[in-house]
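Agenda item 2: adenosine-5'-diphosphate complex prediction
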Amino acid sequence: MNQEMWDLFIESFWKLIIPGLKMTIPLTVTAFFFAMIIAVLVAMVQYANVPVLKQISRFYIWIIRGTPLLVQLLIGFYGLNNIGIHINAFPAAVLIFSLNEGAYCAETMRAALEAVPSGQMEAGYCVGMNYAQIMWHIVLPQAFRTAFPPLSNSLIGMVKDTSLAANITYAEMLYAAQRIVGRTYKFMLIYCEVALIYLMFSTVLTWVQRYGEKRLNAYGGNKG
Amino acid sequence: MSMLEIRNIHKAFDQNEILKGVSITVEKGDVVAILGPSGSGKTTLLRCINYLEKADQGELIFDGRSYDLANTPKKDIAAIRMKTGFVFQNYNLFKNKTALENVTIGLTSVRKIPASEAKKIGLKMLERVGMLARADHFPAQLSGGQQQRVAIARALAYDPEIIYFDEPTSALDPELIGEVLGVMRALAEEGMTMIVVTHEMDFARNVSSHVIFMEDGVIVEEGTSKEIFENPKKERTREFLRLEENRRNVQ
Ligand SMILES: Nc1ncnc2c1ncn2[C@@H]1O[C@H](COP(=O)(O)OP(=O)(O)O)[C@@H](O)[C@H]1O
Ligand SMILES: [Mg+2]
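Presented output:
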């Protein structure tokens, strides 16, 4: 790599990492937070067999899982704009990523809830707890422990998927990279550099995931 | 008046009648052993009287009140459960809670007893079953016998009037059975009222005050443990006891 390329690399690094920290991370964190709320609610509605809400949940999951995320983003931003609902790129991205991730994580949560043995619920009833208390103290914590690894994977996947938000003018990392490329035509250098930064982000999250799993296992896991 | 009476309980799964009119009377301080071959409906009986399963018909008289087992209001069910303990064959300890928390959670979350006081009660119960040293262990870190003793402590925590045991030692390795039976024997000696479904003939013979032999959803024979073990009247009872005796000798 010659001096000129190296200078561009260094200069671009800051131009990429700053949108990474100011745009990619906030979008990921916010959308994942709402996705978790959606996931738990949608999973519980199915687990508890709540009529109507259960059918709505299945319909929602069917739609989200059967259509591409990019198309959902385009509908959520340009499509809504078209029919007179003007929302900025950030809220549009949060909305679509939450709904999308929420559907996938709901399935993860539902499987984890169903994996909790029915004896846990029965033992809860026998000590006098009601349904809500058992869910809160016993079933959800156990399900969450089971779901932790796959949910962490979803989060890591989402950090990378936020690059799609470039398509709806959300100025995250890939968007920044495209602007640099448009000016310099150094496709290889800049796209590899942005890939490197995504790799950094996912690696840190993988460490956090491993640490979390270790902590959870230290408390006896779900065995026994 | 009896402490607990079950009258004419019926329960079918699909078209299959599992309980065909069972009636049981339990006096305060009784230890009632329920014997019978696998599939005779013993578990279903205990589950029905604690409403884990809904009976099709039957009456429960408990604490001076009568309840329709097929149709008891939710709040009555909760009240009945607070006065009865249940010990499962496979322990069913809360896996995400320590031994101590398993014992205290019913006190703090249901009875709203302050945490510090609940802890005191919890430790006392763990001590009663010889599990004080493992108070901070999670179920996965305990042996089957230890888990079952914690489960007994959990059932004891809120001072129940009666405890139901569903084959509490059947899932245990043979060398761990004694520690659980020891705890149950101590409870019996303290005067705890218990219904115990069991295959432990020595326990039924020596600890229980009353023995019920069940088969195919009906009570074949019942009496004091002396009557049943020394002088069973029904041929079917004699045969069952002989088989159980052989089984034990093989082991
Ligand atoms: N939830 C259920 N659904 C269908 N059949 C059941 C259910 N629970 C128990 N049974 C049937 O009821 C019969 C009696 O079971 P159970 O009460 O467990 O007997 P025991 O405890 O005496 O071995 C068995 O044939 C069993 O298959
Ligand atoms: Mg049974």
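Discussion summary: Residues B 13, 18, 36, 38-44 surround adenosine-5'-diphosphate (ligand 1) (CB under 6 Å).
Owner for follow-up: CH.
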